[in-house]
């Protein structure tokens, strides 16, 4: 077999959110080890945040390319990212991104990559590539079952989803309807999938979501290609301030502690914070709780919690604002479970590291992700009440079931899933490389 000599140049363009940029960067790193060179395009504010994650060995093979958005009222450059973006400015950010299409086209014309890998909500990206005869591939970083659910709803709104275990409760439907009420977003989402050249890349693995990959392949008449979990190496996550947290974990017994985090872009309401706080207190289980607030929400951490909560939990818990080294915490031997919103990145991380998930989905695709976690047996559900609210007693009950009563079945399945992913290595990436090479004509 002839060995490929030519390096393939790829322009990668993720949506302007950390949860999208991170897996794109992980895929970029894996491709560079296989004779690909990467141009990584985003706004300056986003690129500045990932520079520390590009070590010396990637500095020549991954080049950062700045995309400048137009100046719009109320949207300064620090808001050219979803991180810290006030919710009322999301529509403005999307508008600014759409208005940057001419700037992006100039980048494409200048770089002339062999291949373009792009995200959702930006149909003008593959359109620009097609005009220049550059193959363009959509890379979706959310769960395949969630994409299948939305696609089915767009194509067959009057029919039930063909996988009955996946549904939305009435209170969840309200959140989904709100997210999908912009018909333009639904069009952009669907259009990006339709324009993908022969294949679509999916952040998943076949053993977990094979039937949903097959379902989408039939609908779009394209091959759905899993790229694996793309979980960042925890060793890379060490940052100032995290060492004390790891030392605190070192003092805890094995499998005695839970990590509690609801993602980088969901902010608990005052009521939700109280129920989680009292649930953790009632459980009597050790915990690290990561809390985030809107940048516009000027809140003192201790004042945002129930009175004297910090005093009462004492050495049993840590409450940290903003950031914590999630993967590094999850792989620590004292961690028994992950109380999670079930964002897809967190689901992949906990599966890769063999940590059972306690599911508390909050919005968008998260309820479907949570049902997948429960369906494959690697998590336990915190049920909401009839009004759709979480209650402290239920939160405490499920935490204790996993940590104190030691639900062995869930723990065993989580470890088995992790071992399976470790054994597979990077088999998915090798298949992805073959598919991408086939798209490029030399």
Describe the structure.
This protein is an alpha/beta fold and 442 residues long. It folds into 2 domains: 8-232 and 424-440, Rossmann fold, CATH 3.40.50; 240-420, 3-Layer(aba) Sandwich (Rossmann fold), CATH 3.40.50.2000. It has 18 helices and 13 strands. The chain has helices spanning 18-32, 44-50, 90-99, 101-111, 124-131, 144-155, 170-180, 183-195, 206-220, 243-250, 270-283, 309-313, 326-330, 344-353, 366-375, 392-403, 408-424, 427-439, and strands spanning 8-13, 36-42, 62-66, 115-118, 136-140, 199-202, 223-226, 257-261, 286-291, 317-321, 335-340, 357-359, 379-381. The longest helix has 17 residues, at 408-424. The relative contact order is 0.11. Keywords: Glycosyltransferase, Transferase. It is an enzyme of class 2 (transferase). It comes from Tripterygium wilfordii.
The total of helices stands at: 18
Give the uncertain stretches in residue-range form. Answer: none
CATH architecture of the largest domain: 3-Layer(aba) Sandwich
CATH class of the largest domain, anyone? Alpha Beta
In CATH, the homologous superfamily of the largest domain goes by the name Glycogen Phosphorylase B
CATH topology of the largest domain: Rossmann fold
Q: How is this structure best summarized?
A:
The protein folds into two domains: 8-232 and 424-440, 3-Layer(aba) Sandwich (Rossmann fold), CATH 3.40.50; 240-420, Rossmann fold. The chain contains 18 helices and 13 strands. It has helices spanning 18-32, 44-50, 90-99, 101-111, 124-131, 144-155, 170-180, 183-195, 206-220, 243-250, 270-283, 309-313, 326-330, 344-353, 366-375, 392-403, 408-424, 427-439, and strands spanning 8-13, 36-42, 62-66, 115-118, 136-140, 199-202, 223-226, 257-261, 286-291, 317-321, 335-340, 357-359, 379-381.
């Amino acid at each position: 077999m002839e060995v490929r000599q030519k390096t393939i140049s790829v322009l990668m363009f993720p949506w302007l959110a950390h949860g999208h940029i991170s897996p794109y960067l992980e895929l970029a790193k894996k491709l560079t080890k296989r004779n690909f060179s990467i141009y990584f395009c985003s706004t300056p504010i986003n690129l500045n945040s990932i520079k520390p994650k590009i070590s010396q060995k990637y500095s020549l093979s991954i080049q950062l390319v700045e995309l400048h958005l137009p100046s719009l009222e109320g949207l300064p450059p620090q808001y050219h990212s979803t991180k810290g973006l006030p919710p009322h400015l999301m529509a403005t950010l999307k508008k600014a991104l759409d208005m940057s299409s001419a700037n992006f086209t100039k980048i494409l014309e200048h770089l002339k990559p062999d291949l373009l890998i792009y995200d959702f909500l930006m149909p003008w990206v593959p359109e620009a590539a097609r005009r220049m005869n550059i193959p363009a591939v959509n890379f979706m970083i959310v769960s395949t079952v969630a994409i299948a659910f939305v696609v089915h709803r767009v194509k067959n709104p009057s029919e039930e989803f063909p996988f009955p275990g996946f549904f939305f409760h009435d209170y969840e439907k309200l959140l989904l309807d709100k997210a999908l009420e912009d018909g333009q977003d639904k069009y952009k989402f669907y259009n990006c999938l339709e324009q993908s050249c022969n294949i679509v890349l999916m952040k998943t693995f076949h053993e977990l979501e094979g039937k949903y990959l097959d379902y989408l392949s039939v609908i779009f008449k394209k091959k759905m290609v899993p790229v694996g979990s793309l979980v960042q190496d925890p060793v890379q996550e060490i940052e100032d301030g995290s060492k004390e947290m790891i030392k605190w974990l070192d003092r805890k017994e094995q499998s005695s502690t839970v990590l509690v985090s609801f993602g980088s872009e969901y902010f608990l309401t005052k009521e939700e914070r109280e129920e989680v706080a009292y649930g953790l207190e009632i459980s009597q289980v050790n915990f690290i709780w990561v809390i985030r607030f809107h940048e516009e929400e000027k809140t003192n951490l201790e004042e945002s919690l129930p009175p004297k909560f910090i005093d009462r939990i004492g050495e049993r818990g840590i409450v940290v604002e903003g950031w914590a080294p999630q993967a590094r915490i999850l792989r620590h031997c004292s961690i028994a479970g992950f109380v999670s919103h079930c964002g897809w990145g967190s689901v992949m991380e906990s599966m890769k590291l063999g940590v059972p998930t306690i599911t508390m989905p909050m919005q968008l695709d998260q309820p479907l992700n949570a049902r997948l976690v429960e369906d494959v047996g690697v998590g336990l559900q915190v049920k909401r009440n009839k009004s759709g609210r979480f209650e402290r007693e239920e939160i405490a009950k499920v935490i204790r079931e996993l940590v104190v009563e030691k639900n062995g079945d869930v723990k065993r399945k989580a470890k088995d899933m992790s071992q399976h992913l470790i054994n597979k290595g990077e088999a998915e990436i090798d298949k992805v490389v073959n598919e991408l090479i086939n798209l490029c004509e030399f």
